[in-house]
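Aggregate trends can hide what the representation actually does to any particular protein. For completeness, the protein is quoted in full, as a sequence line and a line of structure tokens.
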Amino acid sequence: MKGQIIVKKLLKTAALTGGILFAVKGLDNRIEVTHYDISSPKIPEGFDGYKILQISDYHADSVPGLIEEIEHESPDIIVSTGDLVHDTGSYTPGVHLCKHLIDIAPVYAVTGNHDLWRSDYDEFERELTEVGVKTLHDERVILKRNESEISLSGIDDPFALNSVKIAENIENSLAKLPRYNGYDILLFHRANLFDRLKYRGFNLILAGHMHGGQFRIPKGRGVVAPKSSWGSKSSMFFPKYFAGHYHAPHTDMIVNRGIGNPMLLPRLFNRPEITVITLKHKKEI
């Protein structure tokens, strides 16, 4: 009998310890840096080794060590793929972040749904412009390096309450971008709409919005999609595109899990993420 009591106590202790370790691991909020190499014959030799650092879904949050991690990567450019701020509260943290980022590398951004939902969005963007951020509204800039060039395009968030209007908004944005013959990168907020963009001539799409699925189960599968994506006929649970590297013929997409957390529910097994994309010139065989 005494032995059984000891065994029960040991089992309870082991279960309690396991639960604590599970919670600590699951709620780990340290920044994670994920690196991707993207190779293509269309990437000019002059851009071999070109490093793009992507942040997304900052939501004007407080993230210790973020600037130091970004600075350590020494990127050639920094891009923000939407929701730099939340639709409520002050936008000042987003401006302060960009003041630091612009000292590290040129910064390019596109809008996310929470950005555009703000009644003071125009004022916010004006302050971003004043610190040196270039926000791409259905437009393209040409990046030059070592006598070579590539294109960086960006389109606005297409938010609407139904999928037909969302599709129409995307088409209107794309119509403003003439075809580019060289290597073309697109900044776009909504990773869940990759199927609408993967055959549109972009070589690389950098996106966010999905928050990594908020909760991640073993093997990293995201569980929950943001509510604002449901109108585009995306699945509420286990979304198709939630984080990581996706492939289509002639097009890659990198989905950043985001940095901030605007939800009441915590991120679980889903650390805040910075993604670093290094372009590689691939010789044609």
Remarks:
- The first helix runs from residue 2 to 26.
- The first strand starts at residue 32 and ends at 40.
- The radius of gyration is 21 Å.
- The chain has two domains: 1-30, 31-281.
